[in-house]
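User: Design a sequence. Structure:
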């Protein structure tokens, strides 16, 4: 079938198709030709969505939500700009999903640490601190903790992203609170849930703060950046 015929079959105005007037007598719309047009499968659509989320997760963590555009994200994902709106209504909608996925990944990582230390909550907490405050984590925000990398974006982008951040943060604080209560129980210490939550908030904020400050000077003064991580790990492990 000629281009003009396809355009006519699709209901487009033939005035704008050069080939249409030369081939109008051949215009037919066989059902079998229309049905043979390639269609994306639901599985492929799911994979494409995951590619976009992965590209956005890494891009937003490294450059901030405002630091990378949709066109660049789609190029990284190996797709065209226009395909974005088949998966997300807006960039903010995408950012919400990135926040949600980021905290889910962090919770999974924390659960894995706890499972690896079933008999010692203290050892699990120390592993959490050691894994968090490392040069590798500092140097690769694109694959690291969403809370540290995206906290500033949550503060700048209003209630929608803040609400998503708050939900993820709440889950993370609850998990650390449980670890601290387990540590107290295993050591015979007297600790209330309220006191454990207070300690969890302090611990998490100190980990995030230490990581963020170490990133702030890593290029200008690598030795100071390493020192900040080292001191942070040592101090927090003594808690």
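Assistant: Done.
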């Amino acid at each position: 079938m000629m281009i003009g015929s396809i355009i006519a079959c699709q209901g487009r105005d033939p005035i704008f198709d050069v080939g249409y007037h030369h081939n109008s007598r051949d215009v037919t719309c066989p059902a079998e030709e229309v049905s043979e047009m390639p269609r994306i499968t639901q599985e492929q659509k799911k994979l494409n969505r995951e590619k976009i989320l992965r590209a956005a997760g890494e891009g937003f963590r490294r450059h901030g939500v405002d630091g990378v555009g949709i066109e660049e994200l789609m190029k990284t994902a190996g797709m065209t700009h226009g395909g974005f709106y088949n998966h997300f209504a807006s960039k903010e909608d995408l950012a919400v999903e990135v926040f949600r996925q980021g905290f889910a990944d962090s919770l999974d990582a924390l659960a894995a640490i706890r499972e690896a230390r079933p008999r010692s909550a203290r050892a699990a907490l120390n592993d959490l601190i050691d894994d968090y405050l490392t040069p590798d984590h500092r140097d690769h925000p694109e694959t690291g903790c969403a809370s540290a990398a995206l906290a500033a974006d949550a503060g700048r982008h209003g209630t929608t992203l803040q609400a998503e951040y708050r939900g993820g943060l709440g889950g993370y604080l609850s998990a650390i609170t449980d670890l601290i209560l387990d540590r107290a129980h295993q050591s015979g210490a007297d600790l209330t849930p309220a006191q454990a939550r207070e300690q969890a908030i302090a611990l998490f904020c100190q980990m995030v703060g230490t990581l963020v400050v170490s990133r702030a000077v890593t290029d200008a003064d690598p030795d100071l950046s390493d020192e900040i991580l080292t001191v942070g790990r040592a101090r927090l492990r003594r808690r």
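Confidence is low (pLDDT under 50) at residues 1-37. The first helix runs from residue 3 to 9.
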